[in-house]
## 1
Amino acid sequence: MAKLVSKTYGEALFEVAVEDGTVDSLLREVEAVLEVIDANEEYVKLLTHPKLPVEEKISLLEKAFKTKVSDTLVGFLVTIVEKGRFAEIRSILSYFVDKVREYQQIGVAYVTSATTLTETQQEEVVKRLLETTSYVKFIMNYNVDPTLIGGMVIRIGDRVVDSSIKTKLGRMGKELSQIQLAN
């Protein structure tokens, strides 16, 4: 149900942004609102509290964002509060961000390697990803996991390319355990 809610509202906001030609500016605003929400857990709890009247929630929301983001986004946030969906605000706005990135052909890649990649290696990874995907740009997230021994694991959306030595050794171990030796 939560996925359906985030998709429904996220799609609606995306369609408004495309229609108004404000995709880039609305993306920046949504990312800023997400930062505020992530930094203020108590604020989210307050706006989802069942005993606080909707009018007060809207007033708090408008005070916080009215002069900082567009009327479109404030109106959208007010609608979310009115519909009692503010508890899902992170997933709704995250869906919008993902939708905009897809629209702009920007991929998000998570690269895990056994050691820290040099700047040259990172540039090579980006170059290879751009050559092998339909994306025109990437937002890169690098992590180090020494247990990989060598190689790397790259995740883009639900696609995973695992070329780590740890995985290769695991496969070899499985294959060797399935071999039956003749006497």
Note: Strands lie at 106-113, 137-144, 152-156, 159-162.
## 2
Amino acid sequence: MKKYVAEFIGTAVLTGVGCGTAMTVGCDAASGSGYLITAIAFGLSIVAMAYSIGNISGCHINPAVTISLWMRGRMESSDVAGYIIAQILGAFAGSAINLAIFASSGVTDATGGLGANGLAGVNGSVVAGLIVEIVLTFIFILCILGVTDEKFSHGSFGGLVIGLALVFVHLMGIGLTGTSVNPARSIAPAVLAACTGNAAPLASLWVFIVAPIVGGALAAVVYGYLSSDN
């Protein structure tokens, strides 16, 4: 149970701080610095959680990561559902905290997207959105698989490297899809936004569920091939 609580907390922090930062600084072409600040916020959330809950749950805080690690045989099948449920619930907690903070402070768009992902940056193209999210998730999870491979030693810098990798993929993805690479982080803001009157993010939500899982699965397969002794 402690592993699931850790995943709940970690995903709440990632979603709350990452999406909350995006809401605070603004992420659009007119606020280019907002891209960088938001990317750093997501990356630092990973770093903070990796060094606080990593020893308890491994700090997946992302269903796509959990599935890819399971594919590589690095976690028990009996834990997969519990991890994913905890991650989704944690994302809802983080988004709910954002909603409470921004709505009570009178921010006009507090009941808007809540940092939800969308396809506006790719002119609404589902195909482009799928490609962006599959590729960026592949890169991110390939890094995770390499850094956490017990056959190689990366010392105590693993969490920092993974956090920087998340910053890296956000730098490209924010302007295109808002960067998901994490189904839990996408589900919660979209659903809560719909509950407050903005159902737009729900229309493309499936892209941000399917694409990260596909990208993570591809990373697991490719890393398995690259790291094999054959």
Note: The longest helix spans residues 77-104.
## 3
Amino acid sequence: MRIMAIDYGDAHTGLAVSDATGLLAGYVEVVHSRRTGEVLAAVERLAAEYSVDEIVLGYPKNMDGSLGPRAEKAEAFAQELRGRVSLPVVLWDERRTTIDAHNILISAGKNGKKRKKIVDGVAAALILEGYLTYKKGQ
């Protein structure tokens, strides 16, 4: 079962896909666009290309667990996505994934410009790793 994870952002959206066994996560692409339609088109294209069975969308809750404007934006995107693909779309708590992604890239020696281009893809891979771990435990 192949799963796609999305780290949806204002200007950059990271996309990651698991291997066919659902054990390994890797980032595939970062969509550099503010246009929802372009992001949805990229998700549709990659979901078909990788024969994805399920989509996990990062759900940015506040650190106290409450929902703010970013979570509302993710919910709206999830609704649009459900209207475009015939796959299950799961909202997944993504607190700290972008911070963790920055830390990973800093320790790998990536400078600011290089980090900015790929951090959302790494964050999507972290979302996917968390979700895959959860699914294994069920």
Note: The longest strand covers residues 25-32.
## 4
Amino acid sequence: MTIEKLNELGADTKTGLARCAGMEAFYLSLVEKSLRDTKYDELEGLINEHKYKEAFEVAHALKGVLANLSLTPVLKPVSEITEGLRNQTEMDYSALLVQMKEARNCFLEQA
């Protein structure tokens, strides 16, 4: 995974790197670790089980990490999921979960 590839995929690496004091290797290690986190699968499972309070906690944590790393393509659907769960909105989250997984997989293919 490289900064160039992350940029091609839509990440705002300039902002993400700034949050990591410009330490590229550290930033890239955090990006990879965050994308391999099991929280994505946990979130999907909790939503499918209609455990929205627990799902909100997981989504909110993921949103924070993704925002700090500026992984915008994954952040966008996770943010929408988080806000729906925050408001306890009864809705079909499946399209957002698919967007999240597809964006995450695009990044993981570069790892």
Note: The chain has a mean pLDDT of 95.
